[in-house]
Write a structure and sequence with these properties.
34% helix, 169 residues, elongated, single chain, alpha/beta, 6 helices, five-stranded parallel β-sheet
Length: 169
């Protein structure tokens, strides 16, 4: 961590070297990998801003329908970042926050993705369709393999929740 400590010193940022026991108390975790940073949370992205940015770019969007486990959210952020997906969209009532455990599981992916919380996911899907997106649902039970599909530039993939999958709506 010498480079990190040098950076903090050069920017006059406070830091403390503590024991492992103190670090567990500070981080509320035994999975701290020897370091804990206090950082400002990323500002939220509004649904309208996400739609504005998506319309001209046509980038892939992940729609999370009922995903409620923070660890699964972290894994999805890690995967999304790997494939250049910026927006993960979910219903504000069920989408977990980017908690410390979710961010830890994301292994850096949380820095490259934005969570967009919407009041009603089906309504957001309708807005995506209005700007030219085609929406595809995923299922482990039926359908065609994704490799057999030619996806358009403006694609949104719906990933269902851990227990019930995608909602009927």
């Amino acid at each position: 961590f010498a480079e990190l400590l040098q950076f903090c010193a050069s920017k006059r940022l406070a830091y403390h070297v503590v024991t492992d026991a103190e670090l567990e108390k500070i981080s509320h975790s035994t999975h701290h990998e020897g370091v804990c940073l206090l950082a400002k949370a990323k500002p939220p992205v509004s649904p309208s801003r996400a739609l504005q940015e998506l319309e001209p770019t046509g980038q892939l969007v992940l729609l999370l329908d009922g995903v409620g486990n923070p660890h699964n959210l972290g894994a999805l952020m890690r995967l999304a970042a790997h494939f250049g997906v910026r927006y993960l969209v979910g219903d504000e009532a069920t989408l977990p926050k980017a908690s410390p455990s979710a961010v830890r599981v994301a292994e850096g992916g949380a820095e490259h993705c934005d969570l967009v919380r919407v009041a009603h996911l089906p309504q957001f899907v309708g807005q995506l369709k209005k700007i030219g997106y085609q929406v595809f649902g995923t299922s482990s039970h039926e359908g065609l393999p994704y490799t057999s599909q030619d996806f358009p530039a403006k694609t949104a993939l719906i990933l269902g929740g851990e227990v019930f999958g995608m909602g009927k709506e």
